[in-house]
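Example S7 (structure tokens).
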């Protein structure tokens, strides 16, 4: 079915609106001058300046450590929580837990950030801690808002799974724990991976909650960029954003290629099975 001319124009305008800012950012990251509006010539000067900026590199490292830690922990906890919710027999209790799971997603980030900050300060003062906010408080905060997204990615995969598979594995001699890891985990692995990627992305991108729950000794990249906007944002931030964009683009391409290869292998297996049956 061919697209109508108006649909092509609409699609082109949409793509232009989405990707023009990124294209401008990439172009000006190679600008030899400091101007943000006039391109003076091609240069890698701002990439060199980025490598010399120790504070920004430390913020990138902190952001990656926080995102990896929060995504891994929230994925493990979210998978376990999804399995627990799935196995509940009470329909009302399951509905209540679904509602509780959705609250952190619907709640505005600023409310979540302020409430977590107040809780951490109260607990810190109650136990007489010298500093109430640090890396640990940010990690707990990121796990808190990443957890519901993992649950909502894993739970549908559990509901789509054939209920007879774990029972068949236990009939063949597997213990319930071994049946879970040998049968159920491979079936829900796409949801686990999707939840992990989503948690990593959300943690990497978060600013509001991180701003309220961060201590003086720990600074993430969004907070670092926000502090720079009080003075001026130099094109070395464009260079950093360009590097992040191409890294994510490469990861996306690799993931799509892996999915395409998996789909091809499944189709080949079905074709061979149908040929053998005939």
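Recovered sequence:
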């Amino acid at each position: 079915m061919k697209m109508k001319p108006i649909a092509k124009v609409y699609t082109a305008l949409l793509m232009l609106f989405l990707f023009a800012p990124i294209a401008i950012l990439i172009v000006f990251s190679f600008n030899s001058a400091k101007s943000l509006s006039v391109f003076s010539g091609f240069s890698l000067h701002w990439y060199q300046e980025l490598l010399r900026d120790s504070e920004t590199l430390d913020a990138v490292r902190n952001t990656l450590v926080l995102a990896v830690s929060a995504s891994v922990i929230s994925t493990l906890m979210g998978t376990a929580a999804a399995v627990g919710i799935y196995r509940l027999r009470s329909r009302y209790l399951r509905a209540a837990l679904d509602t509780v799971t959705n609250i952190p997603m619907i709640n505005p980030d600023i409310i979540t950030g302020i409430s977590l900050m107040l809780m951490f300060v109260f607990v810190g003062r109650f136990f007489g801690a010298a500093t109430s906010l640090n890396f640990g408080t940010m990690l707990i905060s990121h796990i808190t808002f990443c957890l519901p997204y993992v649950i909502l990615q894993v739970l549908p995969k559990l509901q789509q799974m054939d209920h007879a598979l774990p029972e068949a594995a236990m009939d063949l001699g597997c213990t319930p724990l071994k049946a879970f890891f040998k049968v159920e985990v491979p079936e829900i692995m796409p949801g686990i991976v999707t939840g992990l990627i989503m948690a990593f992305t959300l943690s990497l991108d978060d600013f509001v909650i991180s701003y309220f729950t961060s201590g003086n000794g720990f600074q993430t990249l969004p907070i670092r960029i926000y502090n720079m906007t009080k003075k001026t944002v130099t094109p070395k931030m464009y260079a950093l954003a360009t590097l992040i964009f191409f890294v994510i683009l490469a990861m996306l391409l690799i993931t799509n290629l892996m999915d395409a290869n998996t789909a091809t292998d499944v189709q080949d297996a079905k074709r061979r099975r149908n040929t053998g049956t005939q």
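Notes on this example. The mean pLDDT is 83.
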